[in-house]
Every structure is written in C-alpha cells, then in structure tokens.
Amino acid sequence: MIETTAFPKDLKAVFFDMDGVLYDSMTNHAHTWVESFKAAGIDFPAYDAYMNEGRTGPSTIIKAFELYGSRSATERDIQEIYDHKTRLMQEAPEAALMPGMQDVLRQTMAKGLKVVVVTGSKQPMLLSRLKNDYHIADDNIISGFDVKKGKPDPEPYLMALEKAGCLASQALVVENAPLGVESARAAGIFTIAVNTGILKPEVLSHAGANLVFPGTEALAEEWPGML
To answer: What's the pTM value of the predicted model, to 2 decimals?
Structure first.
C-alpha cells in the first residue's frame, strides 16, 4: 500500500462509489443477494453483503461458495445466481438518493474537479440513473463491466486516475465499504468513508479510511469547507 495520509493540496478529481454513497441501495442488494444464494442452496448472511460490497458479482459468488458452499462455484452457478439477483433487483423498490449527495456532486463539479463514479456493480437499474440524477456521463463511470479484478484490488481506482489524468496525490475517494476503501488506499488515494449501512465504524477505519463520517448528511455539511 502506498501511504497518502495528507488531504490533497492540489485536488483535481473526486471518485465516488455508487451503492451506499450515491444511492440508498444496499438494503436491496443485501436482500437480493440473500435470496439469490438461498435459491442455490447457499445460506449467505446479509451482513456479508455489506462486507463484500464493491466486489464484482462473479467474485462475490465465488467467495460465498468458498465460505458457505460444499463445492466451488461453476460458471453456470455464477450466471444463474447473478441473473436471479438482477431479476430481483428489477423488482425491488427504487433506491432513493443518498441525503446531500446531489449537493456534494454539484459543488464538486462547480469547482471544476473531475468526477468519476467507481462501482463494482453491473446493475442497469442504477447505472442508467446516474446521468439524470447526478449529471454523470457514461464515459465517467467505471463499473463491473470495465474491470477484471475489481475491488479490493486497486485496479478500479487506478483506472479512475488514468481517466481523470491526475496523480493519486491529486485525487480523493468517497466510499462506504471496506473493500472499496482497501482498493482506494492500495491505489494511494486519500479516502473518506461514509458509514451508511450496518457496519461498525471501526471496520472502515481498519480498512484504511483516512476519515470516517457517520453518513452522507454529515459529509455534505463539511464538504464545502473541505473543497
């Protein structure tokens, strides 16, 4: 891990996770993961959905089979479970915007900073909303469709740095999941965590978050001063 402990002085880009940061979608994700695994005979705890947030879908399924299955996941398992999850997500209640985050992104863009959304998700229900809700163009989204390794590997945030054309010391990440924090810190980027789920706050700090806020409203309150 590259240590970057100081808040960026020459800030040029801010990278935001999607689920649990921009959308209040983690309850839906946890429920659909639990139900999809249950249909495959796997008892997957809802808490693990929060702990594994940020992984690509196939990686989450492989991990779940390793921990709770009696065998390794096959390609068919991966496809069937993820297809089931996608169907359930389409039936789930529409995820609300996270409080204060439209203001956070508006203020960030108004400062002329590059904004990139970095998510392990492939769920079209939310990815398709980013343009209208947050004015994020498709070419400023790095999703599960784009990565090979995904979080907690630094790959997604290294891709974001390349897209933004800046150094790690010139960027900032806003995450809500320990694996996302690990990914960002492994890329050498100062990372703020917002605890919007059921995780204990120390989980996020132990993952390497430089700052931990109790939610997006608290972040939004401090954001103008931080910029």
So the answer is: 0.87
